[in-house]
Specification:
The chain has 6 helices and 22 strands. By secondary structure, the chain is α+β, with helices and mostly antiparallel strands.
Length: 365
């Protein structure tokens, strides 16, 4: 799959051509879309969100956002507040302390497993190297070790810290005995802290919840409704699941100050006592909704973002789990509906087809 975007500006008119290429077993398909949009006095947003249908029940999304300033310089599109993996996409500046110094526990808990193992291994090697140099500074204080040999001192430190005690090398001076006592205590404390961190990381519950790649705004019960899907990927229940949805938008106060404001979005059903299947989250856009009367262009102009949080109790570990997601303006598609993914097997059990979890079709189909 590939997308090519060509833009040609003439005076205040922009001609935009999108070439979308799709490769399938039947060969290569190419589609062209042409747009012409007028520039305003400040900047131009080119929101493109449409679907290309190749066969019945098969749809592919094309979502593009390009922003041009008045001098026709392309700038970065809107960045999300919450990344797709649930992490916060916020840069913090001006703090007078380092997280590595004051929040080391939280940093080590949040690190990936590869970085965590690398950190523990690096700390272990550095500690043994420092003790090896300390042993060398004491002269010939290790029995059966070659005087001045770094590797003998290093492996003696490894045996001491791990309480291995092979017996081939042992301390023979008061200076080295004091170092051995200090290193043995350091090894016990280090092993306890490393074991505690490992246990904390293993016992920390993490939700395996998937959200639909896009959200929809389409009629439901004769009302425009914001909809998106949520599903539990684990083979267990999430008890007392609760979903909260907020709208974040850029606004200017009457004094002209810029601010990002949060609005609560009420849901048709925000709780599920037993969450195991897919869950269609819906918000009816009525006169009390913060999305009432909003157009796709206004959503982009105000840099709107739909923030979703899900909490519940994992029945396996009986601990609270959390999941987060967000939808940008260009990730909201209008007048489409999700494909039905629930069915029954031959023996009457319910079945979820996750391969079509993100698929949408036209309202007419």
């Amino acid at each position: 799959m590939g997308t090519k975007i060509l833009a040609l500006k003439l005076d205040f008119l922009v001609y935009l051509c999108i070439e979308y290429e799709f490769r399938s077993g039947a060969g290569k398909h190419r589609f062209f879309f042409y747009y012409s949009i007028y520039l305003d006095n400040r900047r131009l947003y080119l929101p493109l969100s449409f679907w290309v249908r190749f066969s019945q029940g098969v749809s592919l999304p094309v979502n593009t956002l390009r922003i041009m300033t008045k001098n026709h310089r392309q700038v970065s599109p809107q960045n999300r507040m919450i990344n797709r993996d649930g992490s916060f996409n916020v840069v913090r500046k001006g703090l007078s302390y380092s997280h590595w110094h004051y929040d080391l526990y939280h940093v080590l808990i949040k690190l990936s497993w590869a970085k965590f193992i690398a950190f523990i291994s690096l700390g272990y090697i550095i500690a043994n190297v420092l003790f090896a140099f300390a042993y060398l500074a004491g002269g010939d204080g290790i029995e059966n070790a070659r005087p001045g040999n770094f590797w003998d001192a290093f492996f003696f430190s490894v045996q001491t810290m791990a309480s291995i005690g092979y017996g081939a090398m042992y301390p023979k001076t008061p200076y080295v005995n004091i170092l051995v006592t200090i290193e043995a205590l350091f090894g016990l404390l280090g092993l306890a802290m490393a074991s505690g961190l490992m246990f904390a990381r293993f016992s920390l519950p993490k939700a395996r919840v998937i959200f639909s790649r896009i959200a929809l705004i389409a009629p439901h019960n004769r009302l425009p409704t914001l909809m998106f899907r949520v599903a539990n990927k684990r083979q267990n229940w999430i008890l007392e699941a609760q979903v909260r949805v907020s709208l974040v938008k850029s606004e200017f106060t009457k004094e002209g100050d810029f601010m990002r404001r949060f609005y609560d979005i009420p849901l048709v059903r925000s709780q599920s006592p037993l969450f195991a299947l897919s869950w269609l989250i819906m918000h009816e856009i009525n006169e009390d909704s913060p999305l009432y009367g909003v157009t796709p262009q206004e959503m982009i102009d105000h840099e709107m973002e739909i923030i979703v949080t899900l909490t519940g109790i994992d029945e396996t570990v009986s601990q609270t789990i959390h999941a987060r997601h967000s939808f940008l303006a260009e990730e909201i598609t209008w007048n489409m509906r999700f494909v039905d993914i629930l069915s029954k097997t031959s023996d009457g059990r319910r079945c979820i087809d996750y391969s079509r979890f993100h698929d949408v079709i036209s309202l007419d189909d």
